[in-house]
Every structure is written in C-alpha cells, then in structure tokens.
Write a structure and sequence with these properties.
heterodimer, A: about 500 residues, mainly alpha, 2 strands, globular, B: about 475 residues, about 0% strand
Chain lengths: ~500, ~475
C-alpha cells in the first residue's frame, strides 16, 4: 500500500476541517462540533498509524517541487512524531475545552476555522522535511494565529495582535534572508540527523555563523527568546484556549522545535560547537530563563504571570540542545512535551477561574480550593510540576538537563537551574497557598452559572492534561513514555 | 491552424465589439461572454505548439520584415496572454452583473472591454515598434473611456489626467520610433536590435521610449495619475486597469530593453531603473499605509508592486527574469481579485472608507476571504504566487551579492504586510465602531465568486511554477542576461 500521502493527509485533515467550518457559518453549531471532534480523532488515528510505520522503518515521505530544486517535503520521523503526537492529543482536548469555553460568545465559526488552520500549520511544521517547508508552515502559523489573538476585537486585543505581527513578520523577514543565504551556499537539503553542512569549507564559516544567528532570530521570535519575547505577554488577551494552545503546542513550541531542527538536523551539534554558536544560544537561553522568571514574579495578573513563566520554561529546550551531549539534549527535547502538558493545564485553569468567577488577579485567588477543588488540584499539580518537584514531569526534564550539563562539564548551568527552580517556586507556591489555605471571600468578582455540560467541558480536559502530565513523569522509564522516545531520537545524534 | 488561432486572439474580441451593438439586448451577454471564453480555448493549442516547437512567428500577409509585419509568440508573450485570458474570464463574469450588457452602463462597458482585450492580445503578439505603438494607443484610449463610464466626477477628473499624460507618453514613444526608423529603416524589434548603432541618436531614442513607457506603467515618480484613476474607476474597471493594463507597458519596456537594446552595456541606466523601482516600493507602500479608502490602498499597492518588476533591470539574471515574470503574473491575479472584492464591498455598503467597514467577516465573508487570500499573495507570504516571485527575486539578489536590493525587497514585503493587515484588522475586528450601515445590499453571488476564483488562482500560482518557468526559459532574451 502506498503511504506517501499520509504526511500530507495529516496537514490536510485540519486544513479542510477549517475551511468547512468557515463554510458552515455561525449557526450550525452541532455540525461544527462534530466536525471538530471528528477531525481531531481522525488525526489521532493517523498519528497512531504513522508511529507504527516509523517504528517499523517504513516512514513515508511526500514531495512536491515548488520551484526547480526547491521541494516541499513532508515526512514522518521520530522527532516529528513526538511533536505531532503532542499536538494531536492536545488539539483534541483543547477542542473540547474551547467548545465549552466559547459556548456564549460570538464569531465562533471564525474562531474554530482559524483554530483548525493553526493546528494544520503546526502539523506542517512538525512534518517538514527541510527548512524551506518549515518556513512555509511557520508563516502560515503566523497568519492563522493572528485572528485568534485579535479575536475579542477589544482595543487591547488588536494592539496585542499588532505587536505579535510586528515581531513575527520582522523575525520571518530575517529568517527568509538567512534561508536564501543558506540555500545559496549549500542548496536545498533535507533534514538529516547530525546535520548536512559538513563539507562546507572553513572559508565559509563566517557566513555560516551569520546565517545561524539570522535563523535563530527568526525562530527566537516565536520561541520568545529575550529580547524578542515582548509580544508574548501582550498576546495574552487572546481567549484562554488560544493562549493554552499558543503556549503549549503552537507558536512558542514551533519556535523551540525549529531551534531543535536547526541545531540537530541542519547544522548538526558538532558543527554548531565548532562555530562556537552553542555558547551564544546557551547564554541567550540562560538569560531568558532567569529574566522570564524574574518578570513572572513581578506580575499580578495570573495570565501574564503564566506568560512570563512560558518565556522562561521554553528556553529550557534551547538550553538543552545548546549545552549538547546525550543527557542535556534529552532533557531539553523532552521538555517540548512536558512543558506543553503542564502549561496547557495551567492556562485551562486560568481560563476557568476567569470565566466562571471573574478571577483574573492573584489576590483574588483566595479560597478557590473549596469552590473548585478539581480545577485547583489540577493547577497545583501542574504548578508543582513546573517547579520540578519529583516525580513530576518537570523534574525529569530538569534532572536530565542538570546531569547532562555536568556530564559535558558545563557547570555554570547548575546555578541557572537552581535559581530558576527557586524563582519558579517563588511565583507558583504563593498562588497555591492562597487557593488552599486562605479563606473564601464573601463575594466573587463575576460569578456565572454554568450548565453541567459546560462545567464538564471545561473541567474534564483540565483534569485530563493534569493527569497525563503526572503520568509522563511517573512512568518516565516506561518504553512508551516521551522520555524513552526522546532518548531513542537523541542516540541517533550522538552515536 | 496556428495562424487562425493567433488571429482569433485579436479578431474574436474585435469582431464581438462590432457585433455587440447590433444584436438584441438579451443576446448581448451571451455574445460577450462567449467571446471572452474563446480566448483560453485559443490559447490551449497555441501553448502546445510553443511547447513542442518553441517560438511561433507569423508574417502577416506573408510579407517579411522590414517591409511586412511579423507576429511572434514566445514563452513570455504566451504567459502574458494567459494572464490576460485568465483575468478576463472572472472579470467578465463580474461585469455581467455589475455592467449588465442590456443596460446603459453595459452598453458603454462591453464594447470598450472587448476592444481593450483585442488591443492587449495584439500587443503581446507584436514584435514591431510601430505595431506596439498602435496597440498601446488602443489600450490607453479604451482604458480612459472605461474610466468615465460611471460618470463619477472623481473618475472623470482622473481619466482626464490619465489621458493627457498617456498622450504625452505616446508622443515621446512615437518620436523615438521615428528616430529609430530614420536610422535603421526597420521597425521589427530583432532587426532594429541588429542594425541600430549605439550612438547618441540611438541613446536619445532609448531614453524617450523608456520615459514614455515609464509614464504609461506608472513607475515612481511618474505614477501620479495611477492612484486616482485606479482608485476611482467603476467596479471591475479598476481590476482591468491594475491587473492588466499597467502590465502591458511594463512588458513593452522589458521587451525593448532586453530584446532591442540587449547587447548594449548600460549598467548605470539599469541601476537608475532599479532605483526608480526602489522608490516605487517604498513610496507606494508608505502611501498605501495612510490611505483612508480601501480602493486607494489597493491602487497605491499597485504602484509599490510594480517596483519589484523594475529590479529586473539591475539584476538582469535568469533568476531575476523568472522573478519578474512571476511577479507580473501573480500580481495580475491577486490585484484583480482585490479590486473585484473591493468593488463588491463598495457596491454592497455604498462606501469603501475603511472606518465605515466593520464586521465584514459576517456581512461579506466570501469577498473578505478573497481579499485576504489575495493579500497573502501580495505580501509574498507562502504558499502563493507572490511568495515564489519574492523568493526568486531574493535569490537573484543574493547570487549577485546585491545586499542593497535584498534588504529593499525584505523591507518592501514588511511594508506591504503592514498596509494590508491594517485593512483586514479594520474590516473585521473593531466592534466598538460597529453600526448599522445606512445602505446595505448583498452582492450577486457570481460577483463574489469571480473575486474568489481569482484569489484562489493567485494562491494556486504558488504550486505551478514548473511549466511557467519552463516557458520563460525557452524565451530568454538574445543577449545581456547573466546566467
């Protein structure tokens, strides 16, 4: 049986679903919901089928020439499956949450249409077989998320969306020039474990360094590396499911995933080290980790605090691949999944607090534990995971990062990790304490009465992601865990 | 057979022009639309012939130059003919409802439109300086007359300005043709290229010709007539003027520069043309950024987008040639789509002031979608024809180490994103300005579909580069192009 079309189908499922949602219009709610869930389920099935093919070494590849010598390549390898699995699972869960969340708002067709296109572009990013394909879907992602950020249409939303566009389009202009330069030097090449630029002579190393910086800027904008991060807190005005997806899978992760591809599959860790670029990336990541945590501590708005926490946490991924070595790279890459699961839980909770009770600021959190035990419990689990409490998923990432840094002699990473952990604790623990220990206030800011269906639609996805995040930590040693999967990928880079 | 098909491209629309007023009202629409539909049908076998045997030449009445006139059909001309045919069909579909052939406005529009089509097709087939002049005049006059159809005062004023500048440009061109004919005794571009000696007279002729053509193509700073004309033209006329008519004189400029003067070494002049392009990109985009009306934004965007084509002159490589042809094609499709969508919005709401356009995503979803898709191509975002054009142009600039042009292209595409996202944000996301428009009627669905089809084609152009670039490779100019 021919399976070439499978990678393309992964992208098209959500793209077509998005277009049909636009065509269905605002009123056909049932059809829209069924389509959303159906497409998400089909995608999960495709992911399962693809994993089977990859495990048995029959990974399919789709290739289409856009220009002579320039191919659009979509294919499944171990790394892309890691990311597609994460997106497919979280898409399904977020869809359930979003349907309940937006129950009473307008412009839902527009929202879900772009939501699906956003997932389609994430799939394209995950399955991209070369940097050119990656760029195409990276741009598509910008286009698809812009209307989502601006969704509410308020002044703040439009300004946030405008800032988002300025950063991302500016970044992609730099990206494009770097890409043209790289292709001019080396031609179009597919991603390959360990890099593909070895035979480029030492005379071109300055070119390669500049190109590397340009590409890192292009991806760093989305990955919110300091000083390219300012759009992220402003984009917080988006509806909660969008923020959740933005931070966990789509935009920020796409940038971090791009950095992984760039270091591991385009340049290769050896060449990056030879060019001295690993230090640059590591320093940028370390600065971002500390800066993001400090800024998070200073926020009083829950979503803004979470946003700065993302700025900090996503840079663990960059730090891991920049430090290099089997352990640290594993720690960084597995954080792609771990951070996604924990952060989506936190944003789901923040969304529930804000819609159900109107709680948006940290000092309004008092006594929430009694009012919404399940949501608060999920928040607590994810928060503790972020801090890196064993045996949570966050601990696994941090452990591998730290141990890996020591293994390659990068001792300076340890103080960064300790400082970050302390700061994480400083900005999550007071929230958790308020929710469980403080007495309930006499009156909530904006209480809303929800139907059973709505409550279920909001709380069940939240609890599910919290449970999955615990399980990935607890069973990290299981052969099907993200950690084992990442270990398998990384051993290819460092044979 | 080939000769008949070539003749069909010109004489079918020309014949229809004459017939249309003789027929009864009910039959006019069918006649006009059939005449337009015949164009792609003629082109299909011609494409096959060019594909198989390369360039087609046809000596009219079997006289060869210098005495007779020759039509030439090579890859570049074929692509421009296809652009014309592909834009013409949806535009005509739109015009069937916006200028109904049986009514007063339609009686003005259809004969002019068909005459314009005949002129454009004849121009792309011509390889003779005087023939080019005649067809270009036919196009300009038809275009000016079409501007006046609605009787809109602003449009009439713009038409007057367009006419005067157009006539001035034609005079310059004609003077140059006279000078060249005096020296060489030939009018055929190839023959002139061989015979013309590079002396002061030839240089004068070239400068006159280029100036005339720059005015006609509205290249900065000779663009002054364009925004008012394209921004105020009635309905689909803007789409025709921006999508096709300005491309025609730009095509002539490329033909004369590379085919007639191809082996003259003119690096300074080429750089100067490139700088005009740079001025066009920057000025057009910045002006588009502050326009209060949708159609004016789109019109200034045309000024900017034509600037990219001008970069062909300093870059002058195969890649640049690919890029310029692709830009002409992708811009033609996307810009026609935008103007048709804008025409529908204007028709439906009664104004195209950006601040009066709210909630379009609910009122006119199809038209807004067409506008947004076309915007993706104009901004050069993937996947679209505009993106491939930008990629090729960046590649061409990189290959020659032309960092200045490279940065210019990047800045230009960021500016285009700025002015187009401004439009889309204003039309969708401002609920605080939400109000019931005083006038509201939904546009005919065929008009919306016409805009959507063009926009989809602009996106589809991002996937069909192989045959198009193949055609261009078969028709590179004889000299003056770097590998």
């Amino acid at each position: 049986m021919t399976t070439e079309w499978l990678p393309l189908a992964m992208v098209l499922v959500s793209l077509i679903a998005g277009v049909i949602i636009f065509l269905l219009g605002e009123q056909r709610q049932l059809a829209r919901t069924l389509l959303n869930l159906g497409a998400a389920l089909v995608k999960l099935a495709l992911v399962a089928f693809l994993s089977m093919l990859v495990v048995t070494d029959r990974a399919p590849e789709f290739r289409l020439a856009l220009l002579p010598g320039l191919d659009l390549v979509l294919r499944a390898d171990a790394l892309s499956l890691l990311f597609t699995t994460l997106s497919a699972v979280l898409w399904l869960i977020t869809t359930v949450y979003a349907i309940a969340y937006l129950e009473r708002s307008e412009n839902r067709a527009r929202f879900f249409g772009f939501f699906s296109i956003c997932v389609a572009s994430t799939m394209g990013i995950a399955m991209a077989g070369n940097l050119f394909t990656f760029f195409i879907f990276y741009e598509l992602l910008t286009l698809a998320t812009w209307p989502l950020v601006a969704h509410s249409g308020s002044r703040a939303a439009i300004l946030g969306a405008r800032t988002y566009l300025r950063y991302t389009l500016g970044g992609s202009a730099v990206f494009l020039v770097g890409l043209i330069w790289l292709y001019g030097l080396a031609g179009s090449r597919d991603f390959i474990a360990g890099g593909q630029l070895d035979e480029i002579g030492i005379a071109q190393h300055l070119d390669l360094q500049i190109i590397f910086v340009m590409l890192v800027i292009g991806m760093g904008v989305k990955a919110a590396l300091v000083p390219l991060h300012s759009w992220l807190p402003k984009a917080m005005v988006a509806p909660a499911p969008v923020s959740a997806l933005l931070h966990a899978v789509a935009v920020v992760k796409a940038g971090a995933f791009g950095l992984v591809r760039l270091v591991e599959d385009v340049y290769g860790p050896e060449l990056v080290a030879e060019l001295g670029m690993n230090h640059l990336l590591a320093v940028a990541a370390a600065v971002t980790i500390i800066y993001g945590s400090v800024m998070a501590l200073r926020q009083t708005d829950i979503k803004r605090r979470l946003a700065f926490s993302t700025v900090s946490q996503v840079s663990y991924i960059a730090l891991g691949i920049a430090v290099g070595g089997v352990m640290a790279t594993t720690g960084g890459m597995v954080h792609l999944v771990h951070q996604g699961l924990m952060k989506i839980t936190l944003f789901f909770c923040a969304g529930i607090f804000a819609t159900v009770l109107g709680v948006k600021c940290i000092d309004q959190l008092d006594g929430l534990g009694r009012r919404m035990p399940w949501t608060t419990l999920s928040f607590t689990i994810a928060g503790l995971g972020m801090i890196g409490l064993p045996p949570m998923a966050g601990f696994v990432s941090k452990y591998y990062l730290g141990a890996g840094a020591i293994a390659v002699g990068a001792w300076w990473v340890i103080p960064v990790l300790i400082a970050s952990t302390l700061l994480n604790a400083a900005y999550f623990l007071p929230l958790i304490k308020r929710m469980w220990m403080h007495p309930e206030p006499g009156e909530w800011p904006h209480p809303v009465n929800l139907s059973r269906m709505e409550t279920g639609g909001l709380v069940i996805p939240t609890v599910m992601t919290a449970i999955i995040s615990v399980l990935t930590g607890l069973f990290a040693a299981h052969p099907l865990s993200p950690l084992s999967w990442v270990m398998g990928i990384v051993t290819e880079y460092f044979p | 057979m080939i000769a008949e098909l070539l003749a069909g491209l010109v004489f079918i629309p020309l014949g229809a022009t004459l017939l249309v007023l003789l027929l009864p009202r009910q039959a006019r629409g069918y006649l006009c639309f059939t005449a337009v539909l015949a164009l792609p049908l003629c082109l299909m076998p011609l494409t096959q012939a060019v594909w198989a045997d390369g360039e087609i030449t046809l000596a009219l009445a079997e006289f060869t130059p210098p005495l007779g006139i020759v039509w030439r059909l090579d890859g570049l001309a074929l692509i421009m003919l296809w652009l014309t045919a592909i834009v013409a069909v949806p535009v005509s579909l739109h015009a069937l409802t916006s200028f109904p052939p049986g009514e007063q406005t339609g009686r003005g529009f259809w004969p002019l439109w068909l005459m314009l089509l005949a002129g454009i097709n004849a121009l792309f087939l011509s390889a003779d300086l005087f023939n080019l002049y005649v067809t270009l005049e036919m196009i300009t006059l038809a275009g000016v007359a079409m501007l006046g159809i609605g009787g809109n005062a602003l449009a009439l004023k713009a038409a007057m300005r367009y006419l005067l500048l157009g006539l001035l440009a034609s005079l310059l061109y004609l003077l140059a043709v006279g000078l060249i004919y005096g020296q060489t005794g030939a009018l055929d571009i190839y023959l002139v290229g061989e015979r013309l000696e590079t002396d002061r007279l030839a240089a004068t002729a070239l400068v006159l010709m280029i100036t005339g053509l720059l005015v006609k193509s509205a290249i900065f700073p000779m663009h002054v007539w364009l925004p008012a004309a394209h921004g105020n033209a009635p309905g689909p006329v803007s789409a025709i003027l921006s999508g096709l008519v300005v491309k025609v004189s730009l095509y002539m400029l490329i033909r004369i520069w590379f085919w007639m003067a191809g082996d003259w070494e003119l690096p300074a002049a080429a750089t100067a043309l490139g700088l005009l392009g740079a001025g066009a990109i920057l000025y057009g985009s910045l002006a588009a950024l502050i326009q209060p009306r949708l159609k004016m934004v789109i019109a200034y965007s045309t000024v900017a987008q034509l600037g990219y084509v001008m970069l062909l002159f300093p870059l002058a490589s195969i890649n640049a040639f690919h890029a310029a042809s692709y830009q002409l094609l992708a811009h033609g499709l996307a810009k026609a789509a935008m103007f048709l969508a804008a025409a529908n919005i204007l028709w439906s709401i009664g104004t195209d002031r950006l601040h009066a356009l709210t909630d379009l995503n609910r009122k006119l979803p199809v038209d807004l979608f067409a506008l947004a898709l076309a915007a993706v191509s104009i901004m050069g975002l993937p996947p679209s024809g505009g993106f491939l054009a930008k990629w090729l142009l960046l590649e061409a600039a990189w290959q020659q180490g032309a960092w200045g042009w490279l940065i210019l292209i990047s800045i230009g595409s960021l500016l285009s994103a700025a002015y187009l996202f401004r439009v889309i944000a204003l039309t969708c996301f401002h609920p605080e300005r939400r109000h019931v428009p005083t006038r509201w009627q939904s546009p005919p669905s065929s008009a919306s579909i016409a805009a959507l089809v063009l926009a989809l084609l602009a996106i589809a152009a991002g996937f069909t580069s192989a045959p198009i670039l193949g055609l261009i490779d078969d028709s590179l100019p004889p000299g003056g192009i770097w590998p």
